[in-house]
Request: fold
Amino acid sequence: MCLLLLCHVAQALDPQRRIAQFHHTAWTVKEGAPGQITALAQTTDGYLWLATQVGLFRFDGVHFERYAPVDGQSFPATSISTLHATADGGLWIGFRYGAVSFLRDDRLTHFGEAQGLPTSTVFRFAHGPDGRLWAATFSGLVYLRDGRWHRVEPAWRVPGSQARTVFADRDGTLWLATDTAIARLRKGERTFETLDLPTGRISQIAQAPDGGLWVAENERGVRQLPIDGAVSTDTLTAPSASLLFDRDGTLWATTMGEGVRRLAHPLRPVRTGTGGDAFEQFRQDDGLSADYLLPVLEDREGTIWVGSSHGLDRFRHTNVIPALLPDGAQDFAIVAASDGSVLAGSRNRPLMELDGSRVEYLDLPPPLTAAQRDRDGTVWLGGPGGLWTWRDRRLTPVTPLPVSGYSGVQAIAHDAKGVLWVSLNTPGIHRLADGRWQQLRGRKGLPAGSSPLVMLAARDGAMWLGYARSQIAVMRGDAIQPIGHADGLSIGNVTALTEGRSGIWIGGERGLAYYAGGRMRTLPLPAESPFRGITGIIESRAGDLWLNGAQGVLHLAAGDVVRLLAGDAPAYEQFDFLDGMPGVPAQFRPIPTAAEGRDGRLWFATTSGVVAIDPALIRRNTLPPPVEILSLTADDRLHRARGGAVRLPPGTRNLQIAYTGLSLSIPERVRFRYRLDGHDDDWQDAGTRRTAFYNDPGPGTYTFRVIAANNDGVWNDTGASLSITIAPRYYQTPWFLVLCVVLGASLLWIAYLLRLRQLSAQIRERLQERHRERERIARELHDTLLQSVQGLILRFHAVAESLGREAPSHAAMERVLQRADDVMGEARSRVLDLRRAQPLGRLPDMLAELGQELAADYPVEFRLTAEGTVRDLDVLVCDEIYRIAREAVLNAFQHARAGRVEVELVYATEDLQVRVRDDGVGVPNEVLQAGGRHGHWGLSGMRERAERVGATFHVRSASGEGTEMALRVPGDMAYRGEPPPVRWRRLRGLFKGFWRG
Reply:
């Protein structure tokens, strides 16, 4: 509905133009169009629907598509006779030989004989003022009610047996043409009124702007019905199948063999003797796809569409108006005279005066290669035959050329002193002053061996001469100022010179330059910009800049001109072949190729035509284009984008998403932007491309969005969207990722446990080596030192006995020998300690015995606690633990001045923990940081023993707050013959269960 309301914003084709001045495009079977188009309709989504004898087609301005119903649906027939679009986006389809279908949102509803429809061709549909749908069929008039078709009852008083066409006018009256009469059903009535009017095989009825009714007849052509008496309007006698009044009231009619006809002012009284000549015609010779035409339609943008036996034709508005020049004319020299006329000389046609759609020949033969208007308003014309002036609508010969041979005139200029400057095919430049010619050549500052391509007489009296290869010479009297690359001019051949309000514009083959305030600047423009091959420049009265270049006419608004001169990238409007530009402007002669008329119209010449642009009447397309996503191709498999969502299988890699924008006037300029939410960070500028490509987006849910702008840059920011879900492979699912994380963590944990076992084995091996070393040392001590010392003691005993007991030294010797026996006993005890470790499972008893012995000698309370089940310990590890704990207990009793000493043993599954605490004076912090007192090895020794068994050792203390020693030994190091820890057993059980499952 919104699109239908917007239709009224669009403008129809200008009735002041001739039909040949509209932009015409024809599509035939070679361009993909269907043949024998029988009906046309445009639905609210912007599609143009084409009915043919072989099926239904739709057109988006670029591609023709045979419409295939979805979800296994099919049409009841293929030969379609009529189409009717509804305001709610639906499309009624009438078939030959009796069937009707209704299409909306890709869903079809069929009506046939079972639904009351007669088995005969449906000619036309119409909606009455009460919303009732009527259909004209070969078997009579029918209407739709409650889902069924009904023939009109006799009470309706419908004449004839065949209904040829039906039409509802603006007042709500329903008009019916049958095989015998024309009848009407006024709004609110239940009986048709038969009119006493001549009737034939009427194929269509249409209403003119004044309310009059016109008919198209297969035999009589197009005429107005004399409902209220005689009419005096023009009549078309050619057989016609369809007619249309566009939004400006122009009448369009199709004929069966004579092309399309157009009557710009159908309400004007007929001119005597004109007959049907008032109708313009456009035929196959003019470019029409065929002369046999059936339907005609005006779309929501004001474009006219015609269906033919060979294809489809379009007539649309353009802001570029071509002059209706004679066939074969070539290479135009144009100039705007001060009297408002525009003159155009050519290579092979006489001088012409252009005025819109009218061309008048003047008495000046070709060729004419140069035209210029001086500041007095006199037009100067030049060619090989000489020079002429045009003033007060009179042509006056001036003089022959000052050369003997054939020469074209390249450029003409007339300065304020009355001197005429002419550039010919000869080197140098010619001046005509006081009736005498003078050739200037070889002067310093003038390019040697060259003649100017363009000339300009500036307001300050200077003469500007533009040459090839970025060279300009400025003459002020006899002084010549050369300007070239060194001065900032870099545009290639200088092909245009125009004086603006504040400076001189210079156009060339490679760009644009500007001279002002004694400074020349080549303006910075993008490398791929269309500012190339400029041979015509106009600075309009409004301050806008217009350039005629190799890629069309460029328009810069006054504000953009300021930005251009400031060095910024300019915003510009381009008019090219899509706007009706016929070819490219001349790059050598005749130039310049642009002129501004007195009425403000701008004229531009190309090698094959002349066009006009009226800046005050430029039309803009204000309708944003509807956007539709057509299909998604995933890995070469096509998915229709219906329902707004597509689910794709796992492993999908390549996506091609086709979309379209339904602006039918200039679809080649519809621009698109798209993004894939979840993949793209920003909008992608697709230009005019109608397909988006994505490579391996990965699994997930995405939303593809696309927006479009029409030919004038009006965006449809809502656009269209499609939800795309790509299913993941099993290894791309979240549960698989979680499983991998768990498995990876498990493998790391297993590696950790294996590493612990390896370290434990290494530590045990080192302990065994230590134990073996201790045994070796014990053996060596026993076999060497102790045996030797024992021998010495025995000899000392012998010496003592030889002295006698009465000897004064005998008692002293006995005391020394007793001490030696004590030392030997202690040595044997130490050697015994080296040869064996502490007994198994005795750590609590050993520490308790140690504490009791020390408590007997010191006034300190001793306490030992054990948590958990006491387990047997590895012999070597137990010895190291005992020695560490013994050293801590001894330090607490002997040095801490403590009142209480506690030993805590914790037999946990994962480890064995030993803590020794006292409430003594504590250890200074600097001692803890240094690792012990200087010259004392207690703390360092405990740490070394802990490292040997893979244990962690910590001492926490503060001055006056006691000391705590904490030792933690891993369970697999401490316990002997015990099963693995519980967590290892659980993990192993988990993996066994997983692999069995």
